[in-house]
Amino acid sequence: MDDKRKSELFNKLDWDQPMSFQNEVVNAFIAEGDEALFGSLLPKDYTCIYIDKSKLDNIVLILRKIGYPANRQSIKGLLFLLQDINWPGAHQGIKVLLEMDRTYLRPYLEQVIKLAYKNEDDMWLYGLIHLVKQGNFSQNEFTDPNTMKCFELLDREEYQ
């Protein structure tokens, strides 16, 4: 898909569009896209300053429909969504992440847990703990034996 077509479709993913129109655009992305395109729909790192939240539900829907491994280049963007569990697409993003191969997901998850902890980002840790709990991750799955201790920054009663 060329950049012009990508931009044209991307601009039509907005939640303000009629649902039938949104579905057509989602299906067009899936039909015309490839791994590189799907990987470019969300930020490629965790420091994105701005993201158009009105498109997030549809972007995550695309990533869920294409499945793993076609969506694997979006892993950092999906983890980025968990910076605020209330963002559109965040809960569905957890489902997409949990449908990925755990051995592929694990190092990215461990990296982002440590980053959120280092930045004392309680909101992000809260989103990540949702992923960890829903995925039944345990400490022995991570290479660093202290990874799960990062969640101790959170108020134990509120988040456990």
Report on the architecture of this protein.
The chain is built from 9 helices and no strands. The chain has 160 residues and is mainly α. The longest helix has 17 residues, at 102-118. The chain is elongated and about 45 Å long.
Outline of this structure?
The chain has helices at residues 3-11, 19-32, 35-39, 56-66, 75-81, 90-98, 102-118, 122-134, 156-159.
Write the layout of secondary structure elements.
Elements: H1 3-11, H2 19-32, H3 35-39, H4 56-66, H5 75-81, H6 90-98, H7 102-118, H8 122-134, H9 156-159
> What is the H-and-E element order?
HHHHHHHHH
Mean pLDDT: 89
Helix content: 55-70%
Alpha-beta classification: mainly alpha
Range of strand content: under 5%
Largest sheet: none
